[in-house]
Q: What sequence folds into this?
């Protein structure tokens, strides 16, 4: 059995971002730039007023001087003429400053009557002027290739006149859920059957990782049906199959992979829950077989599949989203496998996330999962971890 790190290395082996497409900026939040996105304009794009007031020549200003008013410039307009010495033009915030003017006399410091305006004091050049290009110049890289288009970057690109960006294609994830025992969400209970939750969780987690989901629904434990679903599911970038990767007589997933020419890369990882995790490839398609226990599915998705999706979507450094935290009670890995313990997570007085493992632990303990905020990770080699020991945590939100 291999370690989590060895398994991740095999998943990432040769894994490159998907091709690129140009999309409107309005739909690009969270996507990854495939080419550097450059500012199309200087910012500010022209000399602008930072105040409501009067555009003036600073050299003309002194207490009591009368400057003759020569029309005005509203936001969105451009002054028709150069501002001559001894004159002033009314401007609103954000308006283009007339040529010749080099300062803004704010309304609060101005007295206007009889077509003239008198400053209360002398102004230095550049007072309340936002100079063209003082923020950045056209051609500045606002989002390097490989960077996530976060909201700050989207805002900057919008201001910088960019309407379209080149981003990596979103991975297309095909999902098959196996199990003859599975009841649909909210269905009335039936003897011997349980309610399906893995399909829902994979859909939610996949959406959060930026994948496009193609849902093949639930397939009963039948060899032919499983093979047909797998063949159809291999059409995308990633195929995820929930359940059926163990060695029971009703586990048809591995034979179906074999029948469809999917090459096994690994089966079984030293992770708890999630030991029967399966991974293989057919051509460019990554194929993940998730153990069916609900907690195994969630942990294995977060540890192996989510980073792969983020890599395909273009992120350079896609690793599992672990954060530093601290245990409040002792804990240890079991079975020699790195153990993900359901835990409540609270910020301690020093801001560090404090993880308190739930009393009930187990890959089927969905009730205990519901009492938690995610997982604390007890590494396989760490032995007994004392209360207060630093641990990685995986937050589920
Ligand atoms: P399997 O990996 O198919 O052997 O399933 C392991 C355990 O997880 C069994 O107890 C299944 O009933 C349960 N299980 C499998 N698939 C799901 C699912 N989609 N939702 C909830 N539980 C499941
Ligand atoms: Mg099953």
A:
């Amino acid at each position: 059995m291999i370690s989590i790190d060895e398994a991740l290395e095999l998943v990432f082996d040769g894994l490159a971002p998907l091709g690129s497409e140009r999309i409107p900026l309005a739909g690009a939040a969270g996507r990854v730039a495939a080419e550097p996105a450059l500012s199309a304009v200087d910012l500010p794009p022209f000399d602008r007023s930072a105040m409501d007031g009067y555009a003036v020549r600073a050299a003309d200003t002194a207490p009591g001087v009368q400057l003759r008013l020569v029309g005005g410039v509203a936001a969105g307009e451009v002054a028709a003429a150069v501002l001559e010495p001894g004159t002033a033009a009314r401007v609103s915030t954000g308006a283009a400053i007339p040529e010749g003017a080099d300062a803004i006399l704010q309304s609060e410091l101005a007295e206007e009557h009889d077509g003239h305006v008198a400053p209360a004091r002398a102004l230095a050049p550049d007072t309340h002027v936002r100079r063209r290009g003082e923020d950045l110049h056209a051609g500045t890289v606002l989002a390097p290739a490989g960077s996530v288009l976060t909201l700050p970057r989207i805002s900057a690109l919008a201001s910088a006149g960019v309407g379209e960006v080149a981003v990596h294609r979103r991975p297309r994830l095909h999902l098959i859920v196996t199990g003859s025992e599975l009841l649909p969400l909210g269905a009335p209970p039936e003897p011997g059957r349980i309610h399906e939750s893995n399909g829902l969780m994979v859909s939610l987690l996949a959406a959060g990782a930026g994948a496009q989901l193609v849902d093949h629904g639930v397939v009963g434990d039948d060899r032919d049906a499983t093979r047909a679903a797998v063949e159809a599911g291999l059409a995308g970038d990633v195929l995820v199959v929930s359940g059926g990767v163990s060695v029971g007589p009703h586990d048809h997933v591995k034979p179906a992979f074999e029948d469809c020419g999917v090459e096994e890369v690994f089966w079984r990882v030293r992770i708890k829950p999630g030991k029967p995790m399966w991974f293989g490839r057919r051509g460019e398609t990554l194929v993940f077989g998730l153990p069916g226990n609900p907690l195994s599915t969630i942990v294995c998705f977060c540890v192996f599949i989510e980073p792969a999706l983020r890599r395909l979507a273009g992120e350079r450094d896609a690793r599992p989203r672990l954060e530093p935290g601290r245990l409040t009670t002792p804990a240890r890995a079991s079975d020699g496998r790195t153990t993900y313990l359901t835990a409540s997570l609270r910020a301690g007085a020093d801001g560090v996330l404090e993880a308190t493992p739930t009393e009930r632990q187990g890959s089927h303990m969905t009730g205990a999962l519901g009492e938690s905020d995610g997982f604390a990770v007890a590494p396989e080699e760490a032995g007994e971890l004392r209360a207060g020991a630093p641990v990685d945590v995986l937050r589920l939100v």
Q: What stands out?
A: The pocket of magnesium ion (ligand 2) is lined by residues 178-179, 221, 243-244, 292 (CB under 6 Å). The radius of gyration is 31 Å. Helices lie at 4-12, 151-159, 198-208, 223-233, 253-259, 294-312, 366-370. Residues 137 and 372 are 49 Å apart (CA to CA).
